[in-house]
Structure formats: C-alpha cells, structure tokens
Design brief:
By secondary structure, the chain is an alpha+beta fold. 37% of the residues lie in helices and 17% in strands. Strand 6 (150-153) and strand 7 form a beta hairpin.
C-alpha cells in the first residue's frame, strides 16, 4: 500500500533531521522530495532541513511546468528525475563532505569496497559542473542516474534515489561512508 501524504511528510522531516545530524547537509543546504500520486512534495528553498515540520514540504506537479514560489531551487532537477524514472518514489540531494572531497579530485566513491555498495549502486553516476538550479543540471542528473541509484554532482554534492524516502536516505548515508573509505 502506498504511504499517505501525511506519512510522506513525516518521512521527509525524519530524513532531513538524519542528514543534518550526520553532517551531510548544513542549514539551508540540500533538498528532499517524495512522490505523492501525480505530484511530489519537496522541501522549501533555503529551509533548515534539520528543523523541518510536516507542513513544510511543498506540492509540485510532476507533469506541470511552474514552480511554486517557496519550492527548492532544485525543483526542476527533482521533476526531471521523476519524469524519467516512474519507479523513483523519493530523492535526496545532499552535500556530503567526503563525497565532495573525492569530487574535487575528479573521482566518485568506490562502490566496490563493500558488498552493499555493489548491490545498492553497481556504479555511481557523475555530472560535470552546472549552475545550481539550472535546466542543464536537471537534465544532466537525470541522465547520469540511468542504471544507478546515485550520482555525484561536481562541486555540488550528490543525489540518491529510491522507492521510499528511507531507502534514498540510506543510500546517501552509504555513499558518504564509501567516499570516506575510498583511497
């Protein structure tokens, strides 16, 4: 059974708190979303994801063209992913330190270091640098996620996807763990 909108909102609040506690986002950084029927709920622009409230995520039409005024600046990136991958139910975009360190060296985390890494990702997608919030970034990330559940954005963190907020969050935590142990 699909989760209710209320449950999705609570899942986003919890995921934001976990990301903040783990240091994968700082106040105002990152964004999270989850599919809810023909829409998705996304965190507000500039919001402290560690202090989200259930009423904060903003509904956005997947097949629409407009962006609500308070929605994340990366709303088009989330929309492009949902349009391209109907099975994706949740997206986490964070700025994990170890992932960013490797990205500065031009390298993604080595998923071969653990069995779980190989199972969850197989490979990690990569995008070059694109201006945050741009249509070019949205398109590049959606393309880079083909065949994987994680993508590193040069100078801009990482994106993980899943069939639930919990799974997308777990994948982000795992990606950062792999980045921390990548030689």
């Amino acid at each position: 059974m699909a989760p209710t909108e209320r449950q999705i909102r609570l899942d986003l609040v919890r995921a934001g708190a976990v990301l903040a506690l783990q240091g994968l986002i700082r106040p105002g950084e990152g964004n999270l979303s989850a599919r809810a029927g023909d829409t998705f709920l996304i965190t507000p622009a500039g919001a402290d994801k560690g202090s989200l409230r259930a009423q904060d995520p903003i509904p956005v039409e997947i097949d629409g063209t407009g962006i609500p005024a308070l929605a994340s600046s990366e709303t088009e990136m989330h929309r492009a992913i949902y349009r391209r991958f109907p099975g994706v139910r949740a997206i986490v975009h964070a700025h994990p330190t170890a992932v960013l360190r490797l990205a500065a060296l031009g390298r993604p985390p080595d998923v071969r270091l653990t069995e779980l890494g190989r199972l969850e990702f197989g490979t990690v997608g990569w995008t070059g640098f694109y201006p945050p919030g741009s249509a070019a970034l949205a398109q590049a990330v959606a393309e880079a996620l083909e065949g994987t559940t994680a993508c590193v954005l040069d100078q801009h963190g990482a994106v993980t996807v899943g069939d639930s907020v919990e799974l997308a969050l777990r994948r982000m935590l795992l990606l950062e763990q792999l980045a921390a142990i990548t030689p």
